[in-house]
Amino acid sequence: MKLLRNTLLETFVTVADCGGFSEAQYALGITQSAISIRIRDLETSLGYRLCDRGRGGFRLTERGETVYRRARDMLRSARDFDAGLMELRGTVTGDLRIGVADAVSSLPGLNLTQALQRFGARPNDVQLDITVASPAELTQQLITGALHAAIAPFRNQIADLAYEDLCQEEHRLYCGAGHPLFTLQEQEAAPQDIAQYPLCQRSYDRLPLAGLASGEPAASAANMEALAMLIATGQYLGPLPAHFADAWVRSGKLREVNGPELRWITVFHLATRRGQMHRRAVSLFAEDVRSSRQPPPAAPSPG
Question: Which of 11, 69, 209, 255 is the most exposed, fewest CB within 10 Å of its CB?
């Protein structure tokens, strides 16, 4: 049920999201000619062009970019408003926009798939939308309301958001086949040996590798998959979560570099916005995430 609805703006935002009329017709379930009429009516109402379309392809004008951002945010707020009113009669509905860091699915202390299964098994009419982004990007989207909840290692926490510890993630230092340290096997590498080799790190989440190298890393990557590929070239040392690196290690492409203080712990949090109208869907999802936390694996017995 849509209490606050603007069909023209919804059509325009969908067209912009899809990158043109052709793909938008399938998302909207109407013909391209009907879409064209709606966009023309919206442009007539506003008094300026929102997009260029033709042989050169689809492109938003400068004003169209501004209208798109504002309309997208307004429509999100309208959906949240509608959902909040419907929940007064006990109906769990609307959007639930969740953000996560990359490779969160294999976190040893949290079974996010199980949390989503539990939420999906509840009586609800909620549309899930999951975004993968860096902690900084997730923070910004929580502040603006683009996301309702996010799970990531939020090192830089702000007062506008509430954080709840979920689990820990262990990072280790790795090298790839062909790297001079790859043949050390279980032997520990001395700090002075490690420091002479170039490092690569995630561009958005630098781990504390003080003493291993000076200055900026020699290479960076936007996600762990790309970072693992850089390490696998044999040209760089780099930190990875142990749970993510396990498959690469078992395949023989990577191995851990053993050495003093070459393991780091990162804490994952569930973050939500303070002072927002906490919809029932957000609260239920948070409950399911808490229920899906897993105890850390038992330490091996000595001897």
Answer: 69
